[in-house]
Amino acid sequence: MKKYDVVTTLSYPKTGAMGKTGTWRIFRPILNKDKCVKCLRCWIFCPEGAIIRKDDDSVEIDYNYCKGCGICARECKVKAITMEREE
Amino acid sequence: MKVVVDTGNHIAALAAKLAKPDVVAAYPITPQTTIVEKIAEYVAKGEFSGDYVCVESEHSAMSACIGASAAGARTFTATSAHGLLLMHEMLHWAALARLPIVMVNVNRAVGPGWNIWSDQNDSMAQRDTGWIQIYCSSNQEIFDSIIQAFKLAEHKDVQLPVMVCYDGFILSHTSMPVKVPEQKEIDDFLPKREPKWVLDPENPVTHGNIIMPKDYPSIRKAMQDAQENAKKLIPDIAREWRERFGTYHGELIERYMCDDAEYILLTYAALGAESKIAINELRKEGKKVGLARIRFFRPFPTEDILDLAKNSDLIVLDRSISIGMEGPLFTEVKSSLYGKSDAKVFGYIAGLGGKDVTYKDIEKMVNHAIDGKYREVVWYDMGGC
C-alpha cells in the first residue's frame, strides 16, 4: 500500500478505518444456519452491507459493522435470525 | 519568443493554455470574464488538449477543480468578484487538501450596488483560506505569474493553491505587448505535475475523513510551513524565469527607488504601476521617495517590510477596506513592524469600486504624508486630502 507524506486528512484502507460501528450495537443478530434457506432477503435489506454473501449464497454477519438494527431478523421469513441483547 | 499584443484576460488564457492544464473547470456566465471564453475558443479550434468542464456555479467550478486535482490533474480556473465569493467554502477545502490548483481572479468591486470595476475587496476577503495570492500590475506580469504559479503550487514543499489577481478593466480589458516564449521553452520550465497524493483505484485512500482535535492543528501548521517554504521559493522561481525569458517583476515585493528613500509608498496591483509614475514625478521635485509594490499578499512579505522600515517611513495605499478597521495592507504592514521598528506608517484608501486613481492623486497622498498633515486613515476618494 502506497503511503503519502503530504500533511492532509488522508486515511488508508483497513478494517474499521471508518470506525468500527459494530460497537454501537445493543442487540446482536444470531444466524441459525440450519434454518437458513439462502433466500438472501437479509443480504438485500441490510442497510449497512453487514451481511456477507458467500459463493454458495449462504450468509455471514460482519459484527465489525453490524449496528444491530434488527432489519435482517424482521425480514427473515423462516426466522433463522434472532436478536439477542449484547452482554 | 514572440510578442503578442492583447488584453490581460486573453493573455491569462494564453498562459493557462501554455501551462497545459489537464482540466479547466469554470462557470461560463457573469461574473466570469473573457478568460474562459478564450479558452473555450482554444478548445473549439483544437488547440487545447485538456478537458474543459462548464459547470453550473463557481462553487461547482472549484469543486470540480478539487476533484480533478485530487485525481492528479494539473487544474486551472478563473473567476471574479461574486464568483470568487461563491467559491469561498471550497477555497478552504482546496488549500486544506493541499491541491495545487491555479486560479485567476479578476479583481472587481463587490455589490450591491452592481459595480464591475477594480477593487481588491473580493480577494482580500479570501486571505485566510490558505491560498497563495499574487497581485499583478501589467499583462506581462499576468502571463509570467500564471506559469510561475503552477511551478510554485506544485513544488513538493508547497502543495498549496495559488490565486493570481489583477484589476478588472485596468488590466483585464487593456491591451499591452507581452513576450511569449515557445511551448517547448514553457515545457522545460514547467514539467508535468507530480502529485504528492492522488485518488488512485490501485492505491485507494480516503480523503477528508473525520479528524480529531488532537490531530487537527498539525494540518493547519503544515499549511503555515508550506507558505513559509513558498516565501523561500518565490525568489528562486522569479530569477529562474528571468534567466530563461528575460522578464522580471520583483520577488515577494518589487522595489523601485527604495535605496535612499526617506518615504516608501507601499501598494499593490495596478496602483503599483501608476505609483511608479508618481514616484518619478516626486523624484523630479527632489523628494526622496520610493515604491515597494506588494506582489505576494500571501505569504506576506514580513521580512521585506522590516527591511524597508530600517531607514524609511511607510505610506500605505489600499484599494480595499476591511470595514470596521482599515485597509488590509495598512494593518499587516503595522503588524509586521510591531515591536521591531519605530518607522511611521500612514494609511490611505483610494480607488474603491474602480474610482480612477491617477499618478497626480498618488502624488497628493504622498505629499500629504510628507508634509505632516496626516492625522488618521485618509479616505482619498471622499476628499480626504
List the topology elements.
The complex is a heterodimer of chains A (about 90) and B (about 375).
Chain A (H helix, E strand, L loop, with lengths): L9 E2 L15 E5 L9 H5 L5 E3 L5 E3 L9 H5 L5 E5 L2
Antiparallel strand pairs in A: 2-5, 3-4
Chain B lengths: L1 E6 H11 L4 E4 L7 H11 L6 E4 L3 H13 L4 E6 H6 L1 H9 L5 E6 L13 H4 L7 E4 L3 H16 L7 E6 L7 E6 L2 H7 L16 E2 L8 H30 L7 E4 L6 E6 L1 H15 L4 E6 L1 E3 L3 H7 L4 E6 L9 H10 L7 E5 L9 H12 L7 E2 L6
Parallel strand pairs in B: 2-3, 2-4, 4-5, 5-7, 6-7, 11-12, 11-14, 14-15, 15-16
Antiparallel strand pairs in B: 1-8, 6-13, 10-12
Helix pairs in contact in B: 1-2, 1-7, 3-5, 7-9, 10-13, 11-12
In short:
Chain A is α+β, with helices and mostly antiparallel strands and 87 residues long. Chain A has two helices and five strands.
Oligomer: heterodimer
Largest interface summary: A-B, 15 and 19 residues
Radius of gyration of chain B: 20 Å
CATH superfamily annotation of the largest domain in chain B: Thiamin diphosphate (ThDP)-binding fold, Pyr/PP domains
**Spatial gap, N to C terminus of chain A:** 37 Å
| CATH class categorisation of the domain at 31-85 in chain A | Alpha Beta
Shape, per Cα inertia axes of chain A: elongated
What is the CATH fold-level name of the largest domain in chain B? Rossmann fold
Query: Pairing-aware structural class of the strands and helices of chain B?
Result: alpha/beta
Please count the helical segments of chain B.
Answer: 13
Roughly what is the average pLDDT of chain B, rounded to an integer? Answer: 97
